Amino acid sequence: MTAALHLPDLRDKQDWTTDDLASLPEGLRYELIDGRLILPSPTGIHQKLGYKLTQALEENCPPDHDAVPDYSLAIDRSNEPRPDVVVVHKSVMALTPAPIDRALLLLEIISPTSHFRDMHAKSRVYAAAGVVHYWVVDPTGRGGVTLTAFHPGRTGVYEIVVSTDKVFNTEVPYPITIDLPGLTALRDEYLAARDGA
At 12, is the pLDDT very low, low, confident or very high (cuts 50, 70, 90)? Predict the structure, then answer.
């Protein structure tokens, strides 16, 4: 006989804090955004794109930083996000969560249920925390996989710097190339396999 896993009623509580996370079972992915607990369940496509994007961000990474997938960041009592890929200073690699001020770049991959959260809720939280480089990759549209790069504007709120489905090349915050048409082909290969099954 197996013991039942008892979770608190997640639907009713809207004011989670980082202290509450300690009471939850280990081994599951948790995020806390504006006091709301999020239990992401990414698809294989999402995870494969995360792997490819981590590789792209590792190339040319400054020697004192590294690209890490699915890494918790400490912001405040109401926010402990887990961006899909983080370029973080090596001095905090042994910490979890890591202080967000040691993150050089955050990247989120949109899933069908996370569009508003990644484009709006998290962007507000990250901008308020002083994150200079925030990118969102969207594989959910009918066209190509897109990348939107945000940068804080004069008021501290993010402004879109670029949004593209072409090969993305930048020198900021360091030389990075992301082959978005290649990611589109990979996504389409998996979708075709699903439809042909």
Answer: low
At 81, which amino acid appears? Answer: P
Confirm if 99 and 73 have CB atoms less than 8 A apart.
yes
Residue with tokens 């593209």: 164
Measured CA to CA, the distance from residue 26 to residue 147 in angstroms comes to: 32
Collapsing DSSP states into helix, strand and coil, what is residue 109? strand
Higher pLDDT: 36 or 164? It is 164
Q: What is this structure's pTM?
A: 0.87
Half-sphere exposure of 141 (CA within 13 A, CB side): 12
Question: Could you tell me which of 65, 71, 69 has the C-alpha nearest to residue 89?
Answer: 65
Q: Residue 98 pairs with which residues in a beta bridge?
A: 73
CA distance 3 to 102: 40
The reply to whether omega before 97 is within 30° of 0 (cis) is yes
Alpha-carbon Rg for the chain, nearest whole angstrom, is 17
Query: Quick one: pLDDT at residue 115?
Result: 79
CA atoms within 13 A on the CB side of 119: 14
How far is residue 26 CA from its own chain's centroid? 20
Query: What CATH number was assigned to the domain covering residues 43-196?
Result: 3.90.1570.10
